[in-house]
Design brief:
The chain has helices at 2-13, 48-52, 96-100, 126-132, 150-156, 179-197, 203-208, 256-259; strands at 35-38, 58-67, 76-87, 106-109, 123-124. By secondary structure, it is an alpha+beta fold.
Length: 260
């Protein structure tokens, strides 16, 4: 009891720090979740925020509009946003709609003074959401040594240089050389390239190959080596599986038994 009273007396003797709201506004953190702001120009009516909202508190209406086609082109159709409303009486400030927006149309704003006397007045339309977009603070600076965003790094990356094959050297005719000498030189270079590309053959294959101009026939074909002597088939079969005299054929029996 004495310890509890000592804590009370200690706080009673201290100077109180009271913020005089609403004359003095509190210093909110940079990433505080006050309200969701809308940038209408960035919205493409993709409906991702409305589908991913767990409370179904986002209402979107739109219509299609056909743009005039340029010369030699085709007309294009785009979605025009008619209504974008958020019911903050149902919103649980999870931030999923801001995370899934692919075109940066939704942002967190530290604005929190939007209380109403009637709960039905917490359904704010796109005009009110657009006014809160001006209160969105700029993103904080990156830490020293942090990786830069992919959007900035991709935009500042130089385009890869195209690889081009070096030009082939052009061999001009030698000074004072005639046309016949140029033709002979080209024939010699072609023969050398063909000799380099042709694989070398073994001496045996070259000896077995018939000479040029010799007609191919059965007498000119290379002889094959005789096959190895086959083993006696009786040595790999059990005794009694073959007749005793393999050279003489068994006599054919008469009747149906002999035909089997």
């Amino acid at each position: 009891m004495a310890k509890g009273l000592a804590v009370t007396m200690r706080h009673m003797l201290r100077k109180s720090e009271t913020q005089q709201y609403p004359e003095v506004h509190p210093d909110l953190p940079a990433r505080s979740r006050g309200v969701i702001a809308l940038v209408e120009e960035n919205c493409t009516v993709c409906m991702l925020c409305a589908r991913e909202c767990p409370d179904w508190c986002i209402y979107i209406d739109s219509h299609k509009e056909t743009l005039p086609a340029p010369e030699g082109g085709r007309p294009r159709a785009r979605n025009v946003l008619d209504r974008f409303a958020i019911d903050f009486s149902l919103c649980m400030y999870c931030g999923i709609c801001i995370e899934v927006c692919p075109f940066d149309a939704l942002f967190w704003s530290p604005e929190f003074e939007y209380a109403e006397y009637d709960i039905r007045d917490l359904l704010h339309e796109k005009d009110r959401l657009g006014e809160w977009a001006a209160t969105v603070p700029p993103p904080p600076a990156h830490e020293v040594g942090a990786e830069s965003p992919k959007e900035l790094s991709a935009g500042s990356r130089p385009a890869p240089a195209r690889r081009t094959a070096p030009p082939a050297p052009v061999k001009g005719p030698a000074e004072g050389a005639s046309v016949a000498q140029e033709v002979a030189q080209a024939a010699r270079e072609t023969a050398q390239e063909t000799a380099r590309e042709t694989p070398r053959e073994d001496a045996g294959e070259a000896a077995r190959r018939p000479a040029a101009g010799t007609p191919e026939g059965p007498e000119n074909r290379p002889r094959r080596e005789p096959p190895r002597a086959m083993r006696d088939i009786r040595s790999i079969r059990p005794p009694g599986s073959l007749p005793k005299n393999a050279g003489s054929s068994a006599q054919k029996k008469d009747g149906p038994e002999g035909e089997r």
